[in-house]
């Protein structure tokens, strides 16, 4: 049966979606059409600005996190493709509030290159930037020695939230860089898919799975994982995701974490809540305190069925910044 999607021309999906997104949240965001970026609807006072971005298809990341307490601007590329350096530079200029700009970049070659070029162009215009490179995907740890390194996935939400809170409090550009790097070092993510995603306009998913298989260690661009593993009950699958993260972060009795259970696009909230229940049971048995949790679909891969688990080793400072007020289309408290 052909895959049916709510699209006109697939080539127009991203600009049409951005226009609709901005109309849905006019009090929070403003959409610049050419070059495409999303910026806060209002800006007042001097502070370090936060800018992030990447390919579309991961919504609500990043445009959904533009607003008070998180990003000042987000730059969307085409589906699963980096935004251009021209887009990024324009977003930096629009977000700049006189104290420099922190760029939060997931570790993908195109994103890294284009954000670097944009930072150099911004420097020529007198805008100072720093870059936090988010590389939390444990599935790609140690692969391809000399290659790009770990991919950036759902820990980027924690970096944007925590650094966004600190920026609102007046933290300097260098202090925000150090904070973002600390969050990234302290977080790891693993993901699995029960079914792959389908690109707009395509009638086949990125990969096929047998009924008794899952794809373990998937990325957020429809990539294959690192292994095919047997499908099983949620308690078993969550254990396979959690144990390697716990080991890598050396979590044990008395430690605290911020836990993110993230849906990859087509996973129901009932299932994600069940995943979180199994995760907390495992951590309870280890004596690891779940200080804060975020459960929902925040870093997606179009319509992929699956989930990711992110654990961030937490302390009082990080929890306080996590708890700080936030008002964005996708995250508000």
Short description:
The protein is 32% helix and 23% strand.
Notes on the structure:
This protein has 333 residues and is an alpha/beta fold. It has eight helices and twelve strands. The chain has helices at 13-24, 85-95, 109-124, 155-168, 173-185, 234-249, 269-286, 316-323; strands at residues 29-32, 37-40, 49-56, 73-79, 101-106, 129-134, 187-195, 213-216, 227-230, 256-263, 289-296, 305-313. It has a six-stranded mixed β-sheet with strand order 1-2-4-3-5-6, sandwiched between helices. Helix 3 links the parallel strand 5 and strand 6 (129-134). Helix 2 crosses helix 3 (109-124), helix 4 runs antiparallel to helix 5 (173-185) and helix 6 crosses helix 7 (269-286). The longest helix has 18 residues, at 269-286. The N and C termini lie far apart (42 Å). 49% of the residues are buried. The mean pLDDT is 96.
- Oligomer state of the chains in this structure: single chain
Q: Low-confidence parts lasting 5 or more residues at pLDDT below 50?
A: none
Structural class: alpha/beta
Strands in their spatial order, largest beta sheet: 1-2-4-3-5-6
Strand content: 15-25%
Radius of gyration, Cα only, in angstroms?
19 Å
Q: What is the number of E strands?
A: 12
Helix tally equals 8
SSE order, as H and E?
HEEEEHEHEHHEEEHEHEEH
What about the largest sheet?
Answer: 6 strands, mixed
- Average pLDDT taken over every residue: 96
Shape: globular
Helix content class: 25-40%
Task: Give the N-to-C terminal Cα separation.
Answer: 42 Å
